[in-house]
Amino acid sequence: MGCKCSVEKYFDSLPDDVDIIDVSFKNLNYLPDLSRFKNLKKLYCGGNYLTSLPVLPNKLKELYCSFNKLSLLPVLPEKLKYLNCSNNELTSLSVLPKNLKELYCFNNKLTSLPVLSEKLEKLNCSINQLTSLPILPENLKVLLCFHNKLSLLQVLPENLKELMIFANPINNIILNNNDLKIINKNIKTLNNFRYLYYCLKYRKRFFGIMEPIIKKRYHPSYLYNLKEEDNLDKKLGEW
């Protein structure tokens, strides 16, 4: 379907009232006019070589256009509820529809996000160049924003259940009493990873220093020196 004639032929064969079009992974470098598909609800066009999209039908509710070469999105229909535009070359997003519930825009070149829909429940904006996030809607349940340039994470929504923010230079997080299942905060883990890195890097020198101490403390003769009144749990804990 890669050639222009095949693309046109395929779309010409579709009835006007079609509600789903799937042209994923067809080696397409363009999409023809979609204006006659007034009942189109779902459009799958991911995994191609698209650099732009045509005007989208007003009734479209789901758009899957990931893994392309898009640098800009067209005006998004107000009824759109699901948008996956990840793995493209987007530097910005157009105004987001008020009904949008899920947004996946990871692995692009975004430096900012537009105002988010109040109905948004899932947001994955990871692997971009974001320095800040817009106000997060109260309905948001999943927020994935790792591998960005965020230094501050604002107050999180009460309904948030999943949060992944590692690989950011974050030095301040404002938290409510959220029932979080996953909190990957590099604030607490960065030093641990750094410590682990240097332990591994200089492990030979470390073991050279610590080996005599370890042998002494773990030697069976150590047990003979324990007094009857000694707290065994405390002694073992000091090992």
UniProtKB/TrEMBL annotation:
Keyword Repeat among record annotations: yes
PANTHER family: OLIGODENDROCYTE-MYELIN GLYCOPROTEIN (PTHR47114:SF2), PTHR47114
InterPro entries reported for this sequence: Leu-rich_rpt (IPR001611), Leu-rich_rpt_4 (IPR025875), LRR-bact_E3_ubiq_ligases (IPR051071), LRR_dom_sf (IPR032675)
Entry-linked Pfam families: LRR_4
UniProt keyword Ligase, yes or no: no
Keywords carried by this UniProt record: Leucine-rich repeat, Repeat
Protein name, entry field: Leucine-rich repeat protein
